[in-house]
Every structure is written in C-alpha cells, then in structure tokens.
TrEMBL record:
Domain PurM-like N-terminal residue range list: 61-166
Keyword Nucleotide-binding among record annotations: yes
Protein name according to UniProt: Phosphoribosylformylglycinamidine cyclo-ligase
Superkingdom, natural source: Bacteria
The organism of origin for this protein: Streptomyces nigrescens
Amino acid sequence: MSPRTGASYASAGVDIDAGDRAVELMKEWVRKTARPEVVGGLGGFAGLFDASALKGYARPLLASATDGVGTKVDIARALGVHHTIGHDLVAMVMDDIVVCGAEPLFMTDYLCVGKVHPERVAAIVKGIAEGCVLAGCALIGGETAEHPGLLGADEFDLAGAGTGVVEADRLLGADRIRTGDAVIAMASSGLHANGYSLVRHVLLDRAGLRLDQHIAELGRTLGEELLEPTRIYAAACLALTRATEVHAFAHITGGGLAGNLARVVPDGLHATVDRATWTPGPVFGLVGTAGPVERRELERTLNMGVGMIAVVPPESVTTALATLADRGVDAWVGGEIVERGDRTTGAELVGDYAGG
C-alpha cells in the first residue's frame, strides 16, 4: 500500500497565498474611503473608528443596518463583471441607514467565494470602496472567505453591515409626518438590487433571453441593463436635511414603493402616490410583458422607477426639488399624506402610469 501525501489546506481547496494577494490588491481602494476618524489600516482583526468624533453630539444615536445584493450576484458572475456589484451593496446598506436621518460613518463587508481569484476579489472590493466614497463613509474592514465544495469556483455571495449616527432630536420618522405633507419621489437607476429572482426567472428562464442579447427598448444588452448599479442616495438625502425640513425618508427595496412607504406613515394617516406622475423605465415593462407578470406583483416586488421617497412639509417642496436636482437626482412630487379616518395606516398607488 503506497503512502499517501500529507493533507493541507491547499489540497482541501483553500489558497491562503491567493487570499493574501487579494488583500494586497484591495488595500489601495480601501485607503480611498478613509475618514479622519479611522484608526489604523486594513489587516487588523477589527476595524477601528474614533468615537470621540461624536462628542459634538448632545445625544448621538447610532444607526446600524446589514444587507446583501441577492441573486444579482449571479448576473455579475455570468457576465464576468465584478467592479459594479459593490455599489449595490453600499446602496442597500447605507441608504437604509440614511432613512432615519443618520450620517453614514463606516461599513464592513463579507465576501464568500468558491475560489479566491485575487484580481476578481479586488475588483469587487474596488466597487464597494467607490460606493463608500459616494455615500461618504469609510470601509474599515471585512472578510473574504473561501468555501470550496460549498460554492463553485466562480460563485460568490456578498453582504455588508454599516453604522451611522444621528442627533436624537433630528431623528426622522413617522412621528414627524403630518396631513398635507408632500411625497417626493426620487428616480431609481433601474432595478437596483431587488427582485432578481423574479427577473431572472421571467427574462432568462421563461422568455429565453440571453444576457448578451441587445434589447431594442433598453438600448443596450440585457446584461448591461441588469447590472446597472444601484443609485446611492445617502449624500443627496443628507443634503436635503441640511437644506430644508424633512419629516421622513423611505428606501424602496423589497416590498415595493407602497410597502416601504407604509413603514413610515403614522396611525390614522395614509400616503397616496399617483402613478401618473412618472413613467417606469422600459426594463419594468419588459419584465411585466415577458412574464407575464401582473402589475400588482410587479409593484410589490420591484421599485418601478422610484428608489427613495422623501416626505416633506408643503413649504419645503421647492427647495427640496432644487436641492436634489443640484445633486443630479431626478425627483418630483408624486403624492401626499392624507387623513385616513381610522387607526389603520398604509400607502397606496393610484391611477395609471404616464405614457401607458
């Protein structure tokens, strides 16, 4: 019986050297996200953030959120495009944090791969770092885990967690909303990072479309449309709170516009949003007709062209729209807050979309 060679982590499928190489490649991008409060650099067991920076707050509240990008990662994997998916991660985490009026401070990421390809890992982290710069937060740490046998060599998953801070007396939410407040809708950049299980099922499995297929109504390939990065609203939302009075924000993710807006509407009031105030982008119509998918199902799964909502008093509308325009965010008055007449609460879309 011939002797067996000794087992090693490498023979089990984990390449420590490749992991070290990936860390070296990503350091440049992580450094670009540094804020003055960050202590130390990448490579420690924990990321450090100087909390003495919060001394200027009378009563600082820390806001925390965690999220991932769902099955959108499968589109990135299939196309071999890895430098944009990190934008989606930052948006999903930091745009949740800014909803309460909190300033994003820092985030960490978790990348799980079947096999470490250093350049691929660095490209993903580059996207996260670029997103952090847009959101104004630091990327202070993370983890890249190699899971051979659990994931294929080209498969990966991505998640992250973030922290922000808001002064207690400036906390936004349902308790500030009043009858007559305006509902301002901010345009999405496309599908963002929700509903991709439905989108993939409808467009790829049922309709048989290819990711490299040019779609006339989209003006580009299907893959390019599906990988369009999620818009990061954090900086624009904070600018809005500095420019005028804001009562609440709602990040439009899983559950759709009505479902997420309802989360910030107080008892006894109701939010109505008029579909006639905008036209959803062509990708939403493509999903609807290719399914076919009923409008109600589309609206509770996809953002339908609205990625963030701001609820402001009527006298703040002009300043709010001008501020968002200055930040490059298309926005419009989409609805209002009305009396419900009972203790139930909620939000609804009314009418038909403009242009059909």
